[in-house]
Fold:
Amino acid sequence: MKVLKAEYDGPDSDGDITVTLEVAMENSSEHEVEAVKSSCLFLDKSGIAVCGNHDNEDDLFIEPGETEELTIWSPYLKANDINGEISGVTAVIDATLYRCEFHKLGEHSVPNSPNDPVIIENGFDIGDMIKVLGTGIFMEPIDDDGETRIEVRVGIRNVSDVHFDKVLLKAELLDKKGSEVDESTDYQSAAAFSGRILNPSFWGLKPSRLKNCTIKLSLSVFQPIGSVALTTELKKAK
Structure:
């Protein structure tokens, strides 16, 4: 990771200092990078952290050996927090690069009634790390407005010592012609040796609208493949 820009502007009348951070992110791994998660801390001239943020997530695509530019989101610096002394303030940026493993879970019918859930035995293993434990599609009872809710539940277990920051289940509700009616996603982190339920859902639906509909499912597992860090001093914007 290389700094392209680390500049500040201000303070304004409210004492806010705007910071612009831009970096060049290189993929030195053998895998395609499809997401980057970053954090940023601002240190005063004594090396004390005065503010920052974390879990900034960017979807991008970097092939092995390639480099992409990335803007790191940063909060305002408060002039009062650094006694008005911006000189010597540094930014510490940490970033983790992720590859995405994509799996199709098939296209399945919507339940005909709340008493008739659709249960699919489509479990499988992702390497020796993630176990996918099949799929259930459920319909809630019709409410007073004549509408219902459809919920998809896919159970996963992380049976490894690797922490997965993001496992995402995407559900596409399709009509009988194959046109998309709605889309829903749910994602969770998967700590080492733990289980999760992913449950995207659709609501406000008339039963007549669901006739002959199907739900197309896919699972994306984001696995860390590398991390980078840098410290840079802020310069006055020109």
